[in-house]
Design goal:
Chains A, B: This is Polyprenyl synthetase family protein. Two copies of one chain form a homodimer. With 342 residues, the first copy, chain A, is mainly α. The first copy, chain A, has 16 helices and two strands. The first copy, chain A, has a two-stranded antiparallel ribbon with strand order 1-2. The two termini of chain A are 13 Å apart.
Amino acid sequence: MSATLTTVEETLAGYARLIGEEVERRLAREDSPYLASLVREYPRRGGKGMRPGLLIATCRAFGGPTREALGAAVSLELLHNAFLIHDDFQDASRRRRGLPTLHELHGAPLAINAGDALATFALEPLRDTSVLGGRLARRVLDEVLAMIVQTTEGQALELGWRRDNVVALAPADYLELVSKKTCCYSTVAPLRLGALIGSRATVPLRSLARFGFHLGAAFQVRDDLLSVMGSGAVHGKDALGDIREGKRTLMLLHLLGAVDASRRAWLVEFLGEPEEARSDADVALVRELMERHGSLEFARAYADRLAVAADAAFEDAFAGVPRSEHVEFIHALIPYMLERTA
Amino acid sequence: MSATLTTVEETLAGYARLIGEEVERRLAREDSPYLASLVREYPRRGGKGMRPGLLIATCRAFGGPTREALGAAVSLELLHNAFLIHDDFQDASRRRRGLPTLHELHGAPLAINAGDALATFALEPLRDTSVLGGRLARRVLDEVLAMIVQTTEGQALELGWRRDNVVALAPADYLELVSKKTCCYSTVAPLRLGALIGSRATVPLRSLARFGFHLGAAFQVRDDLLSVMGSGAVHGKDALGDIREGKRTLMLLHLLGAVDASRRAWLVEFLGEPEEARSDADVALVRELMERHGSLEFARAYADRLAVAADAAFEDAFAGVPRSEHVEFIHALIPYMLERTA
């Protein structure tokens, strides 16, 4: 592990602790049966703190204090957990952060309901206008609502492609998907919100969004790769879960274009089966084909190119911003996206 | 049908048309595949317009114009549709407003996602502070978010009782459930929001909440009764759906206390089975037992008592409000709740 990666992980861990306490405090008021323990379950398993960390660091990079970014950071973290609950059900995932998914523990109806509640709790920190003032608070709420809508649009695309077994997809389609389902709430919104709050709405947000897109896309390609690398336990999710779920990962799109016609036909048939019909052997074979046809290598090289683009976009977005440990941390997230193992 | 009922339905139809156009306009901007047509599906099937109608009428009763109440009314109608999508999945319902439910049409993952998007679109009309001003707009948002949380708490209770086959329930437990899962967003919030906006936050809202509770409870008991009366097609839902789903209706709670020990044991076993294991014959038998043991009569008498309490609460809540067609309409909703057939 590189020194940079270690530093990034330590900084993230600090943000994760801060946000974890704030999330716990906010959810403590909820005491309803069949709901209270469910909304606390995922947050208590702990997360990387990447989204709130990026948001707070960006706010500080632009000269704002942590205190002013805290509400929006908590909001994003709660939304992330709400998305995960629904996402796990939609993907029929069995494990999350090393433990059974919420719908496995409590059944789908109660899990879906807990996700709905958590998404609402997520908006509560944004109601407080005493810290940011009415006008800025309103812009923050606008950003967050627009971000949720984009995320559901991305989710719709991903679920729709799988349901209809859409396979005529190029990397450009993958990037469109990823920009909506991942980048928007994982990197673009944290950067935009952090800059909006930190600068008191005085800097343009477009270049931050471009940096966030490349950074988030690199994050997602790494996520795709992690799902087929090493043991599932390390990653805290199902081993080879993406392949079993038929997810349109970058490796899968590459593989569909790399195999011969008869193998492709088999692969399309495999993807068209209901998930429970996909055998362990077939899942392992897809994994092996990805290795054999260079799909993993393709994805790694693709992530590298995204990182180069992220680097250029970073320079542009932070051109006028004084160097600080926060700017350094944000910059170091680029290699972190390529190297992270969890 | 009484003259009052006809008048109420005509007034509601007017509100439903007004809100229907506004909802359509708001959803028109969404054009994503696998999402746009899904979020429009339930609203286009039309609703009773009860929630937005009650909200706007209350605003007008308190002297405010329709225009000022429109955003909150549209918000509630969109939330209602979002709740229905998740609710239908959670209850494994097959029909809604006379057509297949959204998860039957598109599968559960895409339907859940459409509900998430719709719940977010529902908050957009509340962001506009130009009509109400910042302070009042913020109170409206507070009310709506608190209302969503209460609704998920009620939903959790209902789903939890069914999942764990809880049968030791009295009418008081039923009322607690109904006050959260139904009254809150169907009657209490429309009344409180309407008065808040119409009076520019100058009247106390507690007495309106009490009226709303009795009115909403009467609405829900009638809903319970409609599910076991006549043909399902009239109601637009599954015939005998509540019995098949094991819903803790007022009639079911009465029946559990009215039958002898062996019949009770059978009933508890029936309720403990997975839904798909409940035969048509058993569902019909439960319906017949309700008739035989006076459960329907009990529910009707209970609704009548709720209506009497609603009437007293109405007099209290609207004591200082000038008589108008809007006050009359709100008052006439009490008998409407007892008589409505859809």
